[in-house]
Amino acid sequence: MNSSNDVAGPSISRIAIVGGTGAEGRGLALRFAHAGVAVTLASRSRDRAHAAVADLKQGRTDLRIEGQDNGAAIAEHDIVLLTVPFAHAAALIDEHRSRFRAGSLLIDVTVPLSFEGGRPRAVDVAEGSAAEHLRARLPATVAVAASFKTLPAALLARVGEPLDCDEFVCGDSVDARQRAAAVVRSIPGLRAVDAGTLEAGRIIERLTLLAIQINRRYKSHDARFRVVGI
Ligand SMILES: NC(=O)c1ccc[n+]([C@@H]2O[C@H](COP(=O)([O-])OP(=O)(O)OC[C@H]3O[C@@H](n4cnc5c(N)ncnc54)[C@H](OP(=O)(O)O)[C@@H]3O)[C@@H](O)[C@H]2O)c1
């Protein structure tokens, strides 16, 4: 493991985003595509995926985004980001468990929270975090990392605006963290910060809640994090 403030790792060329038709998945797809990464935007419905892709590309042939159904996207990629609501993440993983490639990496983006009376609340997870919840459901041959959990969808969608922030990365092995960090770094303006094992997901997921609360107080949609001193 590189001991510097940014985790070392290879560059990446293609990813799949499962649940990619939502705000977070679409925003990430846009940022990756603008960075030259080939993106497969996946949905339960291939038609919905294709519609989202057409909407994102707006006729631009230089952006490499294609639509696919969730199962096929998982089977065809070595790096899969998961951007579905946390409440449905386990069922999705259970449904597609056997389709994950041996040696592939799942990057969990889900945040266990609910909105009660319009207020965000953390949802307690038996395993400790969403990331550990998903780890428990996947074969050992699939590596699990968590990242992109503190990146606001509203800002991701405004591709002309710099992100200029850090993104925490945790994972179940050094290799998982290095690979996830490379995915983070492929988007300009993002620095990957190594937060350690998947247990750190418990803290990172609470930081998303904090960002939402800060947004409310400051009437913003863009609160995010920068670590100083490393
Ligand atoms: N929004 C943010 O700013 C933000 C920031 C950081 C992290 N996150 C996390 O990222 C994830 C996605 O957020 P989002 O706002 O994009 O969510 P969303 O729009 O509510 O959902 C994303 C996609 O999940 C799929 N989905 C919905 N219900 C499903 C089910 N029962 N089974 C399987 N797939 C289902 C849908 O795609 P199809 O119907 O096309 O299959 C939907 O478009 C969440 O876990 C959220 O906590 C969000």
How are the secondary structure elements laid out?
Layout: E1 14-18, H1 23-34, E2 38-43, H2 46-57, E3 65-69, H3 70-76, E4 79-82, H4 86-96, E5 105-108, E6 113-116, E7 119-122, H5 130-135, E8 143-146, H6 153-157, E9 165-171, H7 174-185, E10 190-196, H8 201-218
Parallel strand pairs: 1-2, 1-4, 2-3, 4-5, 5-8, 9-10
Antiparallel strand pairs: 6-7, 8-9
The structure holds NADP nicotinamide-adenine-dinucleotide phosphate.
Distinct ligands: NADP nicotinamide-adenine-dinucleotide phosphate
| Assembly of the depicted chains | single chain
Secondary-structure element series: EHEHEHEHEEEHEHEHEH
Mean pLDDT: 95
Number of strands: 10
Q: What amount of the residues lies in strands?
A: 15-25%
- The strands making up the biggest β-sheet line up spatially as 3-2-1-4-5-8-9-10
- In whole angstroms, the N-to-C terminal distance is 16 Å
Shape, per Cα inertia axes = globular
The helix fraction, in percent, is 25-40%
Please tell me how large the radius of gyration is: 16 Å
Largest sheet: 8 strands, mixed
Structural class: alpha/beta
Q: Count every helix, treating DSSP H or I runs of 4 or more residues as helices.
A: 8
Low-confidence stretches: 1-9
What are the key terms here?
single chain, 230 residues, alpha/beta, 8-stranded mixed sheet, two-stranded antiparallel ribbon, 8 helices, disordered N terminus, binds NADP nicotinamide-adenine-dinucleotide phosphate
